[in-house]
Amino acid sequence: MRRTGSVGSALLACALILATPAPAASATPEGAADPIARQQNWGDCSVFFGAGADVPPSAQCTMVPVGGTATQPLANLAVIRIPATGSRIGSLFINPGGPGASAVDSAAGMGTALAGTEITEHFDLVGVDPRGVGHSTPQLRCRTDEEFDAWRREPMADYSPAGVAHIEALYQQFVDQCAQRMGTAFLSGVGTAETARDMDTVRQVIGDEQINYLGFSYGTDVGRAYVEEFGDHVRAMVLDGAIDPSIGPVEKNIRQMAGFQTAFNDYAADCARSPGCPLGQDPAAFVDRYHALVDPLVFAPGRTSDPRGLSYADAITGTVNALYSRQYWKYLTSGLLGLQRGTDAGDLLLLADEYQGRGPDGRYSNLQDAFNAVRCVDAPTPTDPAIWAAADQQIRQVAPFLAYGEFTGYAPRDICSFWPVSATSTPGPAAPVAPGKVVVVSTTHDPATPYQAGVNLAQQLGAPLITFEGTQHTAVFNGYQCLDTAVVRYFVDLTPPPDNLHCN
């Protein structure tokens, strides 16, 4: 089978309209520094977005050097700040996850989507792109656009000894390119622990004694690392789509694949309500019918209006992308119908393009390269082939829709097994935090960060848990009044959510 790896990329679609009345809010604490007093080179954000971009007009942007020396920093972090429109409580740092997603872009989008709400009234929205990510420099890139296109044409489905050797050779080539193009010194400094420290550097630049933080998906791990090291500088933190830091990469991958199977089952059951569903109406046959559509792509691409066609790898990636949000299910159905009819499966290709960060011009963002670089340095990855063969056997049991062919007893090791620098962190439970510092949100059928991970993180932190009933990845500020009201009341008033709050 083709392993999709640890996905964890948050598809954040902010569309919140809060109906709750705005209470009186406290102003910036007495004695706190002016938010821009510590940084004199804030400017407009055209340097990041270009002229005429849809960015809140009050937004200010800057670059903050980190690492290395004062004259030769290892990186310059892109930072955006959208000032509060009313009585300011403080800064609300946003991290959309990934790893590799741009917090600058996310904060800009959230500033527009949440305009007129209590969040933008009382908080400066702040986005910090970690080292190598988004608008920060240098940008972490391991592949050219052409090399990435070639990567996606590889099925990576043959788990015979020769097939595994071929896949691992591709992995080694990718790793060698990363080391050559970025340097091992830079790759050693992109882990979550360093990202948390860099975030505190930005806090000092802004001049706030305490920050507020909203982290989605991988952003929950950044928040967890920050509150562990800089807890005194946290006023309020919400972690949505939580990662369990106590488990290693193999077990994390297995649990995540099980989460995607749950989401696939939900999608298939919903699709089956329509007579023309390409997976049919029999739940026992959903997986087999899916394989009948996508498995032939191992040998020949499916038809699309794009001359690239639909590769097997892209069909799997497009499916996984669609399972992040119910809003994407109709495009998955359209793509599968195209395969079934032998017409145009282009919607699956578009889903894969979005997931991989490929724009209409054929240019890629660096999200996927950064994703691998961060996760590979965040935890030691086993190099024993037997461990990965055993993991493949387990994944076939918990996520059969992702399995290709029969279990062979062989499987490729993860890309991180070949990584050129040592891990800078190790798995371990999160340390308990002071009461009131953190609230965790977890979605019952979240495919990428399964529900139990949020339960575990809340228990480790000693933090309250909000359960959201749904099939999607992350939920805060997506227009769900029960959930959004609880989060806003916590951020604005520091009112904790009711015990065992469930929202849908």
From TrEMBL:
Residues 92-479 form the AB hydrolase-1 domain. It comes from the Bacteria. Gene3D superfamilies: alpha/beta hydrolase. The keyword Lipid metabolism does not apply. SUPFAM superfamilies: alpha/beta-Hydrolases. Keywords: Hydrolase, Signal. The keyword Secreted does not apply. GO terms for molecular function: hydrolase activity. Residues 1-24 form the signal peptide. InterPro entries: AB_hydrolase_1, AB_hydrolase_fold, Serine_prot/Carboxylest_S33. Belongs to the peptidase S33 family. This is Alpha/beta hydrolase. It comes from Mycolicibacterium komossense. The lineage of its organism: Bacteria, Bacillati, Actinomycetota, Actinomycetes, Mycobacteriales.
